[in-house]
Amino acid sequence: MGAGRVHAYGAAVGLIGDLLLGDPRRGHPVAAFGRAAGAVERVLWRDHRGWGALHTVVCAGGAVALGAVAARAVRRSAPASIGLTAVATWAVVGGTSLAREAQVIGRALEAGDVEAARARLPHLCGRDPQALDADGIARAVVESVAENTSDAVVGALVWGAVGGVPGLLGFRAVNTLDAMVGHKSARYRRYGWASARLDDVAGWPGARLTAVLAAVAGGDPRGAVAAWRADAAKHPSPNAGPVEASFAGTLGVRLGGTLSYGGRVEHRPVLNGAGRGVTTRDIERAARLSRRVGWLALGVCAAARHIVKGRTS
Length: 313
Known about the structure:
Elements: H1 3-21, H2 29-44, H3 49-73, H4 78-92, H5 95-110, H6 114-120, H7 134-181, H8 193-217, H9 221-231, H10 240-251, E1 253-261, E2 264-271, E3 276-277, H11 281-312
Parallel strand pairs: 1-3
Antiparallel strand pairs: 1-2
Helix pairs in contact: 1-4, 1-11, 2-3, 2-7, 3-7, 4-7, 5-6, 5-7, 5-11, 7-8, 7-10, 7-11, 8-9, 8-10, 8-11, 9-10
């Protein structure tokens, strides 16, 4: 069985596993990686970019090396390779948990329980929930669903197609490091610089594919493309911009504007300014769009790897 077909089967099984099981409540491999990265940080931390770069190399490089060793160990057995790819895919994608968290908040808002929605929002994103009304919470959820469709699903599938199991683990490691140390706090402004920049690079192809697939899978492809072209570059994140703009355009809603993180108020550019304000019902629409994008991404990435491996074999 060819390497491209092995990867396609394994990735499909892994994505089905995520659909059926979601993330485990305890013992998640990504959480274990986070604990290991935290231990490395306690040893290496200095207020210096060089030490932060070393932290990135040790942690991300370790994840890639682990994937390479595991893949090499099973390379002669197609069933074992499919199983390894399936487990790795399930471990690094988080589309089902993303949709579930969004839907829990959406149901609370539909029931008029804004306080319950505020209490749940930190499970999905880092916004200050107390500063948000029902529509503000809904907008935060839709924006988080859009961005995390790229970070938690499509980006991993892209790098899995490029690098197999090492690519899957490496991408999730880089994304996790960015979440841990890539923000611009006093402690991590220099130490987390390398992790943040590497995450920008690693996330670039997945973000563009997510934006394209959101336009294809959504209800308004022209609106998605128009919002992407007009507004994506205004976003402070080079990767969240195209994704959120495309989601905004295809859903016909307006994203961006004023938000608050950790007591710090930011005024972000509006994406798809001609759209209407986000309401509670848009949460379910965004979750359904996210799922469609994930399955389309699986097809695109599996086909691309199959074609490339077929030509090089």
